[in-house]
Amino acid sequence: PVEARIVPRDMSESEGFVLAFWDNVGHRSFDSAGRAVVVRRLLELLPREVVARDFLPLLGIPPRGPRMERLRSIGGLEAQVLEALGTGQIVEKTALILADLNSQERAVLVNLIRHLQLNANKAAEVIEHLFDLSVLHGKPILEFLAKDEVSGMLENQDTPVPERSARFRELLRAWRFPEFTSKEQEFRVWSQRLPKSERISIHPTPVFEDEKCTIQITAESWEEAEKIAIELEDAIR
Q: Over the stretch 3-61, which tens digit does the pLDDT of each residue have?
């Protein structure tokens, strides 16, 4: 036999949602998108303190701290964005950045990360760089994506998707950190002049804060180390 209960016709929307919540919470696991939608709906129907005390712990969400408000913002995003979050294409932090954009920008970015077959970490990198560029230059994200060098790169069907993805990420990185990437390229060109050996490793200072570097030599004898050092000295000159 199946037990059935009839709810009263005059049940309020908040009572109905709470009933549905308790009916599901015991046997259903909520992904990130599901938690965000539920939290947003609870906050629309119930006082904040009630949501924090009675419902957040059941969803695995701390009752204190900023996460409740973050989830509220994410829970109102379009189905396309929530699907990307729920399937792991983006992480919660990325979804929160998307919440600060307009709906057209969100749609374009979600389609972009799918087109480039980016994992969640690389999607976060791309979206964070574009968001930062938009803020730094006071221009819409779509303006950066409309540049000829970007559209030509992304639409080049002769280039495999992973290669297009890598080139696009490198371009965004160069735009976001122009001085750093310039110094990095200079260092790369300089280091290519040195002898190639598994016994030599070269490490620049963090973020190329100066022109110093550390050259590490691994050798089986002092004589071998001295020989490698002489070769390096000749190459550097």
A: 776 777 778 888 888 888 887 787 778 899 999 999 999 999 999 999 999 999 999 99
Helices then strands, each counted (H, E), the chain? 13, 2
Amino acid of residue 132: D
Q: Are 73 and 96 in contact (CB under 8 A)?
A: yes
Number of C-beta neighbours around residue 70 at 10 A: 18
Give the H or E element holding residue 203: strand 200-204
**Number of Cβ atoms within 10 Å of the Cβ of 139:** 11
Q: Nearest-CA neighbor of 94 among 81, 107, 83?
A: 81
Residue type, position 204, single letter: P
Q: What is the largest CA-CA distance in the chain?
A: 92
- pLDDT at residue number 192: 84
Cα dihedral angle (206, 210, 212, 218), rounded to 10 degrees?
A: 10
Residues 6 or more apart whose CB falls under 8 angstroms from that of 123 comprise 89, 90, 94, 113
Amino acid type, 151: S
Tens of pLDDT, residue by residue over 193-237, are 888 888 888 888 887 888 888 889 999 898 888 888 888 888 877
